[in-house]
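Quick illustration, no need to memorize.
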Amino acid sequence: MAEVNVPSNFIADIVERDLKTNKHAGRVATRFPPEPNGYLHIGHAKSICLNFGLAAKYGGKTNLRFDDTNPCTEDVEYIEAIKRDIRWLGFDWDDRLYYASNYFDQLYGYAIDLIKQGKAYVCDLTADKMRDYRGTLTEHGKESPYRNRSVEENIDLFERMRRGEFPDGSRVLRAKIDMTSPNINMRDPVIYRIRKESHPMTGDKWCIYPMYDYTHCISDALERITHSICTLEFEDHRPLYDWCLNQLDVPCHPQQIEFARLNLNYTIMSKRKLLELVRGNYVKGWDDPRLPTLQGLRRRGFTPEAIRDFCERIGVAKRDSCVDMGLLEFCMREDLEKKAPRAMSVLRPIRLVLENYPEGQVEELEAAYHPNVPELGSRKIPFSRVLYIEQDDFMENPSSEFFRLAPGREARLRYGYIIKCERAIKDPITGKIVELRCTYDPDTKSGTSGSKRKVKGIIHWVSADHSIPAEVRLYDRLFTVPNPSGDTDSHDYKEFLNPNSLEIITSARVEKSLTNAKPEAHYQFERLGYFCVDAKDSDAANGRLVFNRTVTLKDSWSKES
């Protein structure tokens, strides 16, 4: 399992105090409890790192438990994807894989116990009526007319609910707590509802399903969790968590602790909205590299090491805040800088002919894969008379700040020679420059004494006959504003989708050493950024190479006004 450094934070302080007082007999047990109704995103990564990291730091264990209480939205596809993502991130639950559905029989038994104690009742109010009776933040709720049914009637009705005698939505089981509570969550919350849907794990055994708040706390207790860590939106649910456990004979009473969820600018974290983007074809599936899903980040080229580093850097806080996307990209650059081999690629080629280089001659230039990691070795780069360079590396009428190729100017070819542009050839109809005619200085080869002659511009290149075609995908922010969901009353968040979030370049050429590049392999394309071989669309064996740009070499996002 990956090592995660968990800096001191208020949750770690609680765990340490509990260990000192022997509160849980010296045990630390956490859990990561995803609902299998979508794919994990970067926000879940923070929770994964926190739960697994805390337990590992204090010699404890972490369970993976799927809170699968809503068969209408859950799918085995999501379950398997979540397991893959957690393992990819570097964590493993060993033999501690659980499902809330494992406890359905026990949960039903506990519900019967609550009824027998007079602390739960079957309610026939419609959803709209129940909402009216619930009250507001400033007004107390009203008691349901069914609140005082006898224990015997409630047990009979609840058992008939289980047998499927009533239609969906006609009855629910509610906890009997306090309709005057200032906390709306304590105003007789629903703990079971009728839902005649087949469940991914239990099939058609059940037609009533427990609610999340009721299920979660009991599942924690049955698994003997010591510290139930969740995000701030559950802070108002903690009294209900504790109330349920206080009424029942459960093995232990875990402590619920809330922390601030991860909000990342220029994206969204809502599962509902992510699902809307996927189903509406605004993006190309859950693994679209523009999404903050772990599968999308992985496909784009983000590494688990960089994501864990990011989660460590942002820390654990009690108040919500928004983290700059630039920090995640910074962590990615730091990780790839240390290990990504270098290569040359030309995205928008313009043909360059060295008029004084012998026709038919090819020489191989030696180039290290990484300037600071000699163990990565080196590769041979074919050099010939006809090359490709980037269109942007030539300017017909250059400014004083432009130091690359221009008519009459010199520049050095990376790992190669100094060349001089003699003239540019234009298409006679369009006037577009289609070819550069240059000469090279044979005494200036890199690595020789002639390489000491200096010029200001250094440009990358590939040999026209020896490079290979590739498709390159350049990704930018998915949204044009930092907080696309921030003003939902007057704007639909989809109005802020960035029309330039993806640029597909089909004309790119890459150096020959990448012929057999493996899926998910990372490279630094010199001067262009860090790229990853697309694991879904690339097929090197059949000559199809697709590269996703993971991050630029430095932050190129325009400054906010």
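The chain has twelve helices and 27 strands.
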